[in-house]
Structures are given as structure tokens and as C-alpha cells.
Amino acid sequence: MAHKVGILTPMLAGLMRFLPSEFTVVNRADYDSDAAMAAAHPDLKALIVIGGQPLAHETVEAFGGLGLIACFGVGYDGVDVAHAAARGIVVTNCPNVNNEDVADHALGLFIAVVRNIVSGHARVVGPGWTSGDRGGLWPSLRQLKAGIVGMGAIGRSIAKRLPPFGVAVSWWGPNPKPELGLPRADSVLDLARDCDVLFMAGRADETSRGIISAEVIEALGPNGYVINVSRGFTVDEDALIAALKARKLAGAGLDVFHDEPTPPARWADVPNVVLTPHIGGGGRGAIEAQTRLVLDNLAAFFAGKPALTPVSPA
């Protein structure tokens, strides 16, 4: 008997071609609503979702036979794991498979915003350079001190990339990690006061909501930079924009936003930002590894075996 798997998010439709023949795939795009999909397939046992996108209780409850929610990506903040567990549903994610790609992206944002690369490109293809405008003076990377918020897999991957550029690294996280051999600040605020560029790489859950506050942004000061590759809700986005417009912050590189997709008009007149559409973990290697892990979790579930990467309720 074929195992029935549902794909809720259109951007995951490409996974269908990787699913073995014993899986029957149900695509949400073929139905008017989650409820309609659930009603048509009461025997559906597993769902594949983007872990950072909200998954409503009503949707979970509509699939009465559901036993597995497989999150594509390391994040699972869109899924109420406790609610799922209370219904006997296992939630899985894809940890430690995209941290190198996300760290690469964070460094790309850092270099692009500090060295004025994007606006430099605009001067070349526009009238700027031919009229004598090559931009202003910008810091050398080796003049900067970096602070990293969160020293999990992504934070560690960022940390190991910075010293070859001559960038000193310190960090803050809720738990001391003496094995890192890096100075740990007493608080995020202290970290911001002591660094020039603040990398947000902390947990993508409620413990990190608003951790890069208006006070932290103010502590960074007019020569400071914010790089965020965690979640948009970790940064006070209104305070960030206000500081950039008032020149009370030098720049920001963001791959994540409070609302996604973020309204283009929100950023139209914000100076010295480099923005990307939540693609930090989207390198081919990371996508392939996450796909394999999702498939392995599905195979284990339908074989009656323990999940490879279960998420525990908080």
C-alpha cells in the first residue's frame, strides 16, 4: 500500500520528484484550502512543511490520521510542537545541514554592506562613476570587531570565517561554552557596546524574539552594522529602519524579515542596506542534504522506526 504524504507549501513541490514510488504525494496547490485537502485524504499520515511558516492548529487537527510533520529546514518555529505531541504527532527538522551555507551568506552580506558593493555596482551601471562619484570611504574589514549572538552551528560557522579577514570575534549566548576559546559578553547589550558588527545567529524561537532591540541598536552606534540570518522577529525592525534613516547605524545586511515577503516600499528609502529574500540556507548542497534528511525521516516513520531528528516539545 502506498504511503500518503502531503506537501503544504508550493515552494516544496519540487520534492515530489525525489519521493520513492511507494509514496503517494498530495499537493496543497490542488485544493482550495487545507480543510478541503484534509477532507479529501483522511488517510494522509505525514505532512512536509517549511518549519518557519505558521502551521495552524486547525490544519493539524483537520488531518485526523496525521503522525508526522517533517519540517524542511532547521527551523520549526512555525509549528506548535507541544500541540502536535499532544495529538501523538512527531515533528522533525533538519539540523546541522545548512549552517555552512547560512554562514557563507552572512559573510557575503557583511562584506557587501561594509564595503559598499551593491551601491558600487549601481554607480557603475548608472551615471555615478562617469560623473565622478565612486562613493565614500568605508572601513577595512580588519578594523572591525564582530559580535555573534547565538553560538550554535550557524554562529560557530560564522565565527570560524571571520579571523582570516582579521576580524576579532566575541559572542553572547545563554550558556557559557568555554571550549570555544572566545570571549563571551555578559549580555547582548554589552556585546553591542563592544563590537562594530553584530551578527544575529540565535535560535529561531520565542527566546530570541526582539533580542536585537532599539537599545541594542543604539549601543552599536552610528558606526555599527547589523547582519541578521536568523529570523526577522529577532530584530526590532522599526527601530532598525529608524536608526538607518537617522544615520544612527552605519548599515545592515538582512536575509530575514518580520513579514515575509517584506513590503518593497518599506525599504525603498532606507540607506545602506543589503537585502536578500531569505535564501541564506538555499545553497545546492544544503538543499540536497535537507531533502535527504526529510526523506529519511519519512522512511523511518512509515517503517515504524524512530525518527532520525525529532524535535522535543519545549
Characterize the structure shown.
The protein contains 10 helices and 11 strands. By secondary structure, it is α/β, with parallel strands linked by helices. The model has no long low-confidence stretch (mean pLDDT 94).
List the helices and strands and how they pair.
Elements: E1 3-7, E2 23-27, H1 34-40, E3 46-50, H2 57-62, E4 68-72, H3 81-86, E5 90-92, H4 99-114, H5 117-125, E6 145-149, H6 153-161, E7 168-172, H7 188-194, E8 197-200, H8 214-220, E9 225-228, H9 237-245, E10 251-254, E11 273-275, H10 284-302
Parallel strand pairs: 1-2, 1-3, 3-4, 4-5, 6-7, 6-8, 8-9, 9-10, 10-11
What is the structural class? Answer: alpha/beta
Reported CATH architecture of the largest domain: 3-Layer(aba) Sandwich
Number of strands: 11
The rough form would be described as globular
Helix and strand run: EEHEHEHEHHEHEHEHEHEEH
* CATH fold-level assignment of the largest domain: Rossmann fold
CATH superfamily heading of the largest domain: NAD(P)-binding Rossmann-like Domain
- Biggest sheet, strands in spatial order? 7-6-8-9-10-11
H/I helix tally: 10
What percent of residues adopt helix (DSSP H or I)?
25-40%
Main sheet specs? 6 strands, parallel
> What is the percentage of strand-forming residues?
15-25%
Number of domains: 2
Which residue ranges are poorly predicted, with pLDDT under 50 across at least 5 consecutive positions?
Answer: none
Terminal Cα span: 35 Å
Q: Determine and state the CATH class of the largest domain.
A: Alpha Beta
- Radius of gyration, Cα only, in angstroms? 22 Å
Average pLDDT rating = 94
